[in-house]
Amino acid sequence: MKLSFKYTNNLVDSLLKIEKYKTALDYLLLPTREKQKLMYEAKLKKTHFSTSIEGNVLSYNQVERVINEKKDIRKLTAEQEVKNYWDALTFLEEENSKNTRIDKEFILKLHDIIQKNGKLTRIPFRGQTAPGVLFAVYDSVTKQPEYIPPEWVDIDPLIDELIIWYDNNQNLPAPILSAIMHYALVTIHPFNDGNGRTSRALATYVLMQHNYDFKGFNSFEEYYMSDLNGYYESIQMGLPALFYSGRENPPHLEIWIEYFCKIMSLNAEKIYDQALEASKKESNELLKGLNKKDLTLLRYCLENGIKVIKNKEVADLFGVTPRAISKWMNEWVEKGILVPNSGVERITSYTLAFKYEKLKVSDLGFTN
User: Which of 192, 253, 289, 326 has the fewest Cβ atoms nearer than 10 Å?
Assistant: First the structure.
């Protein structure tokens, strides 16, 4: 397959937005509980919407119930599909932690998990069809072939070619790599079923590998689901139905890449806004119960970048006697705002508690 493209103004604009929100998110400190909540919700959305695209009828709440079902009971097909996809995402998380590279075995195992029916078994690439039978993706309404993928004998070499291309193009921006791997795998259509889900999961793994999954909060399948016609039209790029009539060498791959990156940039902005809101919750909790004197001390430390503070400078700040400030220092230690930094009986300096270091002056309610 020829996997070339050109940079367009729209594509560059989306890449810049992705980078902007990724960088902002990297510097945003989140409480563990909020981070875990956002990761869980993103994984649930990926599971729900990626299976919904393929016709799964379960609602978001029903998907969550299936995922949280503790009993090992026989599941309906729709239930098994969502459980499989959740397990596939867990597999990707585990493999990413081990820096597992993408190869043919990786793709096969990912698909095995997505398509398993009870016990995990090896599901090979699709084979030869019976004489006179055309393997194709059919339009659900017209029943006409919507896409005729490459012949089964070409699948292995095409997958090998794709993996070599991926290994040799690691210098490309991660969103573009992810978009191309998504397109290429679903275009090769190596399996009898599960190609769409496997392609979207593989695209997710590419982003994980390159630290572009936005701390695990990334989930743009819901955008595809809300714009299914746009999703399919973009990935088909107006090309003929037959793979050998242009899809093996698409002339305008940037049509799909541009669409993919635009959605990723919209999702990046949404993720950052959600994370920002979550970060404020911790700030509110930290400040609960603090009085004006406490907030003034915090403001002084934050504005001046002070981590180690001595009694005298705090006494000067408030204009009180050393005796009074010693009592205040003890109160701040009891509140967990300050931590003794030196001495045992006679403490001469204190450190601002780590949990308060990440606050901003604006979090304290001061406007100037």
Answer: 289
Mean pLDDT, the chain, integer: 91
Main-chain phi, psi angles of 176, to 5 degrees: -70, -40
What token pair was written down for 293?
């004197």
**What's the CA angle centered on 85, arms 81 and 90, to 5 degrees?**
150
Pairing relation of β-strands 349-352 and 308-310? antiparallel
pLDDT tens by residue, 315-357: 999 999 988 888 999 899 999 999 988 666 678 788 988 888 8
Domain ranges in the chain?
Answer: 9-282, 289-364
Judge whether 252 and 154 are in contact, CB under 8 Å.
no
Amino acid making up residue 168: N
List own/partner pairs for 33-39 with CB under 8 A and 24 or more apart: 34/278, 34/279, 34/281, 34/282, 35/215, 35/278, 37/278, 38/215, 38/216, 38/217, 38/271, 38/274, 38/275, 38/278, 39/215, 39/216, 39/217
Measured CA to CA, the distance from residue 250 to residue 35 in angstroms comes to 40
Question: How high is the pLDDT of residue 363?
Answer: 75
pLDDT score recorded for residue 290: 87
At the second CATH level, the architecture of 289-364 is Orthogonal Bundle (1.10)
Q: Nearest 10 degrees: CA dihedral of 224, 229, 231, 233?
A: 180
Q: Nearest 5 degrees, angle CA 123-CA 128-CA 131?
A: 145
Per residue in 105-122, pLDDT tens? Answer: 999 999 999 999 988 999
Return d(Cα 39, Cα 52) in angstroms, integer: 20
Q: Per residue in 7-23, pLDDT tens? A: 999 999 999 999 999 99
DSSP assigned state of 134: P
